[in-house]
Amino acid sequence: MVAFQDLDPMDLQRLLQDGDDKLVLVDVRTPAEVARGTIPGARSIPLHLLPVSAGTLDKGQAVVFYCQSGGRSSQACQYLRQQGHDKLYNLRGGIMAWVRNGLPVVSPS
Questions:
Q1: Is 67 one of the annotated active-site residues of the chain?
Q2: Would you list the DSSP string of 40-102?
């Protein structure tokens, strides 16, 4: 059974532009990494805090995780799958791929 699906940056951009309010975008990088820029609308939950924050994520919503290059976000997907979530997505290539595709990054608020 596949625990999650990979999304490429352009697919994620289309989903975000469609304004799907059931989509939650989660940045699992460290606060220092997030300070360098984040995808607009993303919520920051560092990977090491995911076990204590997982309850704040609705199991009925689709969750897209991303990190710097895709490794940590893949771990986040696997962890939440074990917690009973089934609408999980990993941004393939992470924020590095997002930036390579010329997509916007903002300073965190």
A1: yes
A2: TTPEE--GGGHHHHGGGS-TTSEEEEE-SSSHHHHHHHHHHHHTT---EEEETTHHHHHHHTT
